[in-house]
């Protein structure tokens, strides 16, 4: 859940983990993790997929190469190929979304990096924090929210329902281990 799949490049994983913490503190967090959407198609897979699609689009058009129909079909095939290429690129762009969670004795901080480059920060005292998991009837299954500092935020909306439930358990475990007086 919180580890990259083997298809991820190690450099991208290290870069995500080495990002600056949501708040500037001298002490290291007790626990921290970075969440991002699952991506099953890397650069090599994208190139292979696009090559297969190009060949697949060319095969039905090639018999018309010496006939007049070739020039009629060619713009449609090129348009379809470009549309698929752009759709894959837009989908891959969504993979830049990530959430960085840091936990200290007296602070839980979350930094969300949007696809647009915008960074949203939220923090709360873990003593007053409530973790809410709406299993059914929410916007998505196992809808996970954190309530604190007079605000409610969603967490890990891009994760699978099972991963959100596991994240809730992991957060509760680490928060329950805190010594609030430390």
SSE inventory with pairings:
Layout: H1 10-17, E1 31-35, H2 43-61, H3 69-93, E2 98-104, E3 107-113, E4 119-124, E5 130-134, E6 143-148, E7 151-154, H4 161-176
Antiparallel strand pairs: 1-2, 2-3, 3-4, 5-6, 6-7
Helix pairs in contact: 2-3
N/C terminus separation = 30 Å
Element-by-element helix/strand order: HEHHEEEEEEH
Number of H- or I-type helical stretches: 4
Low-confidence stretches: 1-21
- CATH A-level architecture of the largest domain: Roll
Helix content, binned percent = 25-40%
Description:
- The chain is an alpha+beta fold and 182 residues long.
- It has 2 domains: 10-37 and 97-176, Roll (PH-domain like), CATH 2.30.29; 43-93, no CATH class.
- It is built from 4 helices and 7 strands, in the order H-E-H-H-E-E-E-E-E-E-H.
- The strands form 2 sheets. A 4-stranded antiparallel sheet has the order 1-2-3-4, with no helix packed on it.
- It is elongated and about 80 Å long.
- The chain starts with 9 loop residues before the first helix and ends in a 6-residue tail after the last helix.
- The model is unreliable at 1-21 (pLDDT under 50).
Question: How would you concisely characterize the structure shown here?
Answer:
This protein has helices spanning 10-17, 43-61, 69-93, 161-176, and strands at 31-35, 98-104, 107-113, 119-124, 130-134, 143-148, 151-154.
